[in-house]
Specification:
The chain is an all-beta fold and about 140 residues long. Helix content is about 0%, strand content about 55%. It is elongated, with a radius of gyration of 16 Å. The protein starts with 6 loop residues before the first strand and ends in a 5-residue tail after the last strand. The relative contact order is 0.30. The model has no long low-confidence stretch (mean pLDDT about 90). GO terms for molecular function: Rho GDP-dissociation inhibitor activity.
C-alpha cells in the first residue's frame, strides 16, 4: 500500500539459499488490502533467509533518511521489532535493497504463523508506505 506518491514499493521477496525465491503478494493500491489475505509463506525452522525490497522514488522529491521498520507478531504478541536505516535516494529507481540475513528459531514452540508488518518512513517520520504478510515456521520444507 502506498501512502504518498513519493514512494512506491514494487516487490518484497524472501530469499533462502538453495530454495526458489518467495514473492510476497502486495495488495494493489486501489484494493487497500480489502481482498482475502494470501496463505502464509512456509519456511523451515532454523533456515537463514534474507528479505529483498524493491522500490521507486516518485517525482515529488528526493527521500532522505529512508528507514524500514519490521514488526512481527505471533498470536497477537509482538515477538520481533527492528528498524533499519536504508539511506537517501534520488527520484527514480527502481532501487533494490537486500536486508542482512536472519535465522529462524528452531523447535516445536517456534512452529506457528507469524504476521509481519513492514513500514517505510523518511527522516521526518512521514509514513511513505507499508506492507503486511505472514509466514509459517514448519519442521520441514513443503513438498
Amino acid at each position: 500500500m502506498n501512502v504518498t506518491s513519493d514512494f512506491e514499493l514494487l516487490s518484497v521477496t524472501i530469499q533462502v539459499e538453495g530454495r526458489p525465491d518467495m514473492h510476497v503478494r502486495l495488495a494493489p493500491p486501489e484494493d487497500g488490502g480489502a481482498g482475502p489475505p494470501p496463505p502464509p509463506l512456509v519456511l523451515r525452522e532454523g533456515s537463514e533467509f534474507r528479505v529483498r525490497l524493491e522500490f521507486a522514488v516518485g517525482s515529488g522529491r528526493d527521500l532522505e533518511g529512508l528507514r524500514f521498520v519490521d514488526e512481527r507478531t505471533r498470536q497477537g504478541v509482538t515477538v520481533g521489532h527492528q528498524e533499519i536505516l536504508l539511506g537517501d535516494y534520488r527520484r527514480g529507481g527502481p532501487y533494490e535493497i537486500v536486508l542482512p540475513p536472519e535465522r529462524l528459531p528452531i523447535g516445536h514452540m517456534a512452529r506457528d504463523v507469524y504476521q509481519v508488518t513492514g513500514t517505510f518512513a523518511d527522516k521526518d517520520g512521514r509514513l511513505l508506505g507499508c506492507e503486511s504478510h505472514s509466514f509459517e515456521i514448519t519442521k520441514d520444507w513443503p513438498r
